[in-house]
Write a structure and sequence with these properties.
The structure is a homotetramer. Helices cover 77% and strands 0% of the residues of chain A. In chain A, helix 4 packs antiparallel against helix 5, helix 4 packs parallel to helix 8 and helix 5 packs across helix 6. Chain A folds into 2 domains: 51 residues, Homeodomain-like (Arc Repressor Mutant, subunit A, Orthogonal Bundle), CATH 1.10.10.60; 147 residues, Orthogonal Bundle (Tetracycline Repressor, domain 2), CATH 1.10.357. Chain A starts with a helix and ends in a 7-residue tail after the last helix. By secondary structure, chain A is mostly helical. At the A-B interface, helix 9 and helix 10 of A face helix 7, helix 9 and helix 10 of B. Chain A binds a DNA duplex through helix 1 and helix 3.
Chain lengths: 202, 202, 202, 202
DNA sequence: AATGAATGAGCCTTCATTCAT
DNA sequence: GATGAATGAAGGCTCATTCAT
């Protein structure tokens, strides 16, 4: 018996890959199942055998992307327990992940909140909860040690990741006037200046 | 009988208002002309009398929002020629404008890039060009005077407005854990720390 | 201005007529909206402009048929207050109505209970209630006068109309071995024998 | 391990039972093979191993039901050679059979004429022919003996079985206002009154 | 016998847009 | 300017059936 999972998984992955490309090219709504069918060289029925509906394809991409990103970022924090290194590293990692996964990044940044959120499962909510808990703990430890400015959680996240997000959006849109690497370095150190503890000179 | 222009303008504005609400509630694609027709208590034909097509409604909303925002922001810069005040003021203004125009803000942040951009006219491009030129000049003057850290343009914009944008997105999504005013203040001063000239102590 | 209702009504009636023919020829489920569209020389959109969905077409046919039949039958009872004449007349009328409206009869006897009942409106329920009340009163009066055998309501209806229904079903199916008129006369007088009061000799 | 035939037959019967339930609940057309698959805890392939296609499942149910009913009814006639007993007995048997096989009765009365008839095999036609011949002979003998009113065949069948059929339909639809047993007795004796020879007093 | 992935034709319905009045 | 009936292309999804294992 041939390795059945391999055939099946290949089909599923082919559909996901095709869908990701198309969603980015034409947008989620404008992409038809028939577009996906052609691009994935699958049959309509096969697509619906693997995914309940069109939304479920987008959700699968989103979840897959989010899980990968979160896994990596937690590793970054593990290797950089101190904010002085961890904050710029997290920012650089954000940009880096997007550069390594441009299609996924573009798709996730498109913010198709409606579709994705409706399809969000309990598993995803748990994934998010864990991730949030771990990162919050990392930050709390640094604040306690006086190695991080005590900011509100809302502001902290916006300050650290907002610029990276904005930068990547511009990069993906082809609106950057210089190589992204330069801006990344500036954004990473700016993040540190913005959240460094009051006394510390940058 | 009311003056004719008023009736006409009211109809047009009613359509825009209805569409804005619906776009935010269900998304642009999921909103049908018939939805708008009902919500605006107009007829199909009437809608098409005022707007070439569905995209044109979205475009009108977008342009109206953008123009208002840009006009106000330029005024902020005029009244705050020095970066020390202008940077935090611009950040606060961003959040403030969104809080005063939540529906418009939500619509514009939804990033329906595809649809809107396709409908972008030459007039809009000119509007953008002027705005960009003026703000860039303000920044250049401050850098020359040593009142602003000399950052790449890409990084500068991401650092200053990225956090505000992220904050507003969370606010609109109802994800903030505290009143937005607190976070706004933190984000505004963080922006200054991030772009203050090297020597200056915050 | 041209008589708008006429055009509109014609379109609606054309759709109904086409659908009735097709439902009888191929069955409700096997009839597609596209079949109806072609037969009615209408556009898809036009069909959906007049009827919410496919079911609503069937429901409209059913209601129209039922209303006509009930109206006529009540008139029969008005003109035949005594059971001795009324019972056979009602039976003959049942067969007669079906012979005058064979397509409608075939459709209604097909007993697409599921589809029709789901689409049954309050108006229909009221129509049925009235009809039932009037016919029950006619019967009650005859029973009181001793002109009709006192039977349970369930049995009475089955005994009087069951044979007519069975006869028409066979006729519509082309299964009769003789002209339906002969059988109709036999069925009508049999109904009277079956429900005549105990003493009365047929 | 159970004997192989038993497993096989069980599977086949399980499919039939599941299908019968579903056909009654949702209708034949609305029941999908996948519905049957789930309800029968079988696989798609297995269903198609036992039945050529969906129609064949319905046909099998229909044939099974018809054969059982006809076998029993012929026995009733054998034990009641005289019309005076045989007619009411046949009517009672009709109702009785339906009460003992409500699911099958409901399915057969649904009158899915199109589908079932298309699948009617030569074997069934022969079965019907035999049944018809035997019952016709029974009736002919009674008419010759003067024990049954000489009615046309079409009218006779309608008069005798029409009421029973109507009664059962109402019972299955839950529309009876009293226990079916009462109405059954009335319908059975009414049938005799309707077909008793002219002279005979009921 | 059983399994379940794959197929692909086809269906109902939606919806932006047009146009006669 | 307004109305709403009409259009018809297109889309998401279903489902009976096949077939390799």
């Amino acid at each position: 018996m041939a390795p059945e999972w391999s055939t099946t998984a290949a089909r599923r992955n082919g559909i996901l890959a095709a869908a990701l490309t198309l969603f980015n090219e034409k947008g989620y709504e404008a992409t038809t199942i028939d577009d996906v069918r052609q691009a994935a060289a699958a049959s309509t029925g096969s697509i619906y055998h693997h995914f309940r509906n069109k939304q479920a394809i987008a959700a699968a991409l989103f979840v897959e992307g989010l899980a990968g990103y979160q896994r990596e970022l937690l590793e970054v924090f593990r290797q950089n327990p101190h904010a002085r290194d961890g904050v710029p590293a997290a920012v650089r990692h954000y940009v880096d992940w997007c550069m390594r996964n441009p299609a996924l990044a573009r798709f996730m940044l498109a913010g198709r909140d409606f579709e994705v959120r409706e399809a969000t499962t309990a598993a995803v909510r748990e994934m998010n909860a864990r991730f949030t808990a771990e990162t919050a703990a990392w930050r709390a430890r640094n604040v306690e040690r006086g190695e991080l400015r005590p900011l509100g959680g809302d502001a902290y996240l916006a300050i650290v990741y907002g610029p990276a997000r904005a930068l990547v959006r511009s990069w993906l849109a082809g609106r950057l006037s210089a190589p992204i690497e330069e801006a990344t370095a500036e954004v990473a150190s700016a993040a540190w200046r913005a959240v460094a503890p009051p006394g510390e000179l940058p």
